[in-house]
Amino acid sequence: MQIINNFIDGELIPPSSQQFLENVEPATGNVYSQIPESNRDDLSHAVAAAKKALPEWSGMSIEDRARILTRLADEVENASDELAKAEAIDNGKPISLAKAVDSYRASANIRFFAQAITQFSSESHSMGNEGINYTLRDPIGIVGTISPWNLPLYLFTWKIAPALAAGNVVIAKPSEVTPMTAFLFSKLCVKAGLPRGVLNILHGSGGNIGQAIVEHPEIKAISFTGGTATGKKLAATAAPMFKKLSLELGGKNPTLVFADCDFESTVNQVVRSAFANQGQICLCGSRIYIERPIYEKFKEAFLRQVEDLKIGDPLELSTQHGALVSQPHMDKVLSYIELAKKEGGQVLTGGERITLKGRCETGFFVSPTVIEGLPLSCRTNQEEIFGPVCTLQPFDNDDEAVSLANGTEYGLATSVWSNNLSRCHRLAKQLDFGIVWINCWLQRDLRTPFGGVKASGVGREGGLEALRFFTEPKNVCVKY
Ligand code: NAD
Question: What's the CATH architecture for 2-249+456-479?
Answer without folding.
Answer: 3-Layer(aba) Sandwich (3.40)
